[in-house]
Design goal:
The chain has 269 residues and is mainly alpha-helical. Among the domains are: 11-111, no CATH class; 198-268, no CATH class. It has 9 helices and 7 strands, in the order H-H-H-E-E-H-E-E-E-E-E-H-H-H-H-H. The protein is globular.
Length: 269
């Protein structure tokens, strides 16, 4: 996970989403608004709705590679994910900043699971509810889940390069930073799926090979246009977190230190 670049929606799409949200907000009670959020999102999130097709187009621009999930960066992103679940926060069901593109393996287990640090005592509280639970407003507080639309996940976690390729909290155990990283990693299953670890390892090798190719081609006299194509290829690859961590950790990994010493400009790609 990396922080996602902000993209502004066209004004007419913003206006449409605002209108959709207003229809939900008219519910007399919280339970009414939850029901309206579910129903209206199902009605609006369709291929024949030009507004949501525009939303999905902008979400795609945020994704790495060929529309990869913004959480795991591996599987295809084909679900409009509410970072704060719509069943808990109906007032955010049509809010652009609450959306990202996710895959089923990430979005499914997350579903309505959500935790906050309670406003009154700071304790972590699960506020998700099951289908049969009475719809009551969630406890007030700050989210535990790291939001890549608003925060840089790499402030809270790091990848173990080039070893296990597991995500690890960077904060000390017991700190809010550690709790947030651990919760996010577990909720999204970022370390639980073996194929993700293998994919990160393969991405590491691919990034390293592309960087070595860049050095070779540059030193052989490649044109600026050719070099720019190589740089663009790196930026479009899956698993951009691996690349960010290669940049961040290059001074402590000898093979990366040598490559980045040969091409320091790559630290800013």
């Amino acid at each position: 996970m990396i922080r996602l670049a902000h993209i502004d929606l066209p004004p007419d799409i913003v206006k449409k989403l605002h209108g959709y949200q207003q229809a939900v907000n008219k519910g007399a009670t919280y339970a009414d608004r939850v029901a309206l959020a579910k129903r209206h999102f199902g009605l609006r999130n369709r291929k024949d709705n030009k507004t949501f097709e525009a939303v999905k187009h902008s979400l795609t621009e945020m994704c790495s590679g060929a529309r990869r999930c913004c959480y795991c960066e591996d599987s295809v992103a084909d679900e409009v994910e509410h970072i704060k679940p719509k069943d808990l926060y109906p007032e955010l069901v049509f809010v652009w900043e609450n959306y990202l593109y996710a895959c089923g393996p990430c979005n499914g287990p997350k579903n309505n699971c959500f935790a906050i640090f309670a406003a009154d005592d700071g304790q972590m509280v699960e506020v998700g509810r099951t289908r049969d639970t009475l719809a009551l407003p969630p406890t007030r507080g700050e989210p535990v889940l790291i939001d890549p639309r608003q925060e840089d996940p790499l402030d809270y976690m790091e990848l173990d390069l080039p070893g296990t390729f597991l995500f690890l909290p960077v904060g000390e155990p017991g700190t809010l930073s550690h709790q947030r990283a651990e919760y996010t990693i577990k909720l999204l299953g970022l370390n639980r799926r073996d194929y993700l670890l293998k994919a990160r390892a393969e991405a590491y090798c691919s990034y390293r090979a592309r960087l070595a190719e860049y050095v070779h081609r540059r030193d052989a006299g490649a044109t600026p246009a050719d070099l720019e194509r190589l740089i663009s290829g790196v930026r479009r690859m899956n698993h951009p977190t691996v690349w960010r961590e290669m940049q961040r950790q290059h001074t402590i990994i000898p093979e990366l230190r040598d490559l980045f010493d040969a091409t320091p400009e790559a630290l800013f790609w």
